[in-house]
Amino acid sequence: MVVVSSAVLAQMSALRVQYSSLSLVRQSRRSSATCDSARILTHTSNSNAVIGADQQTGIRCQGPCTIRNVWFEDVCEEAIVLRQSSGTVTISGGGVKSAPDVVVQHNGGGSVKIDSYCAQDFGRLYKSCSNCATQVKREVQISNVIARNGKLLAGVNSNFGDVATIDTATNSYTSLTSVCDTFRGNNNGNEAVRVTQNQSNAK
């Protein structure tokens, strides 16, 4: 298990990293309202990197991939977008700071494992797409997570059979509005309807 101290989160705001040596990282300056393009990963892994500010989407996985010890300084839209048709994406170690929308956006199929992760000042850590044109059952496992000043840990679509397994015994929450919300998703692009908020639906 990767143990991340609270001091790490504080240090993220002061990070000044040389990006040129990190092949999967691009640096930009916040000089306009636009964001830089994403880095696309396909059936591969990314480890030990820092994604700088102004990235529209930091990482996109087109297939099963592993994201290990990757830190996001300041997220413009989503930090990670998953589009695999099946298989498992593993996100282990690392974290995100200042992500007002979604950290992990799951648009494809398969499952996601988020372990030993830090999130501070975020909207939603994990979100199953609620209005994608193609809808499938999605699964997520969340454990050993430190979540501070966030709105939602996991959002899933109950009508499509999504399953979120959240290990609350190993997670740490501070000023988190909801651990899990369920939605009634659709495939027509409309805004999804929230069904439950911060309720366990385990049988």
Automatic annotation (TrEMBL):
Family annotation (SUPFAM superfamilies): Pectin lyase-like
Localization of this protein: Secreted
The entry's keywords: Calcium, Lyase, Secreted, Signal
Reactions this protein catalyses: Eliminative cleavage of (1->4)-alpha-D-galacturonan to give oligosaccharides with 4-deoxy-alpha-D-galact-4-enuronosyl groups at their non-reducing ends
GO terms for MF: pectate lyase activity
Cofactor: Ca(2+)
Enzyme Commission designation: 4.2.2.2
GO annotation, biological process: pectin catabolic process
Free-text function comment from the UniProt entry: Pectinolytic enzyme consist of four classes of enzymes: pectin lyase, polygalacturonase, pectin methylesterase and rhamnogalacturonase. Among pectinolytic enzymes, pectin lyase is the most important in depolymerization of pectin, since it cleaves internal glycosidic bonds of highly methylated pectins. Favors pectate, the anion, over pectin, the methyl ester.
Protein name listed in UniProt: Pectate lyase
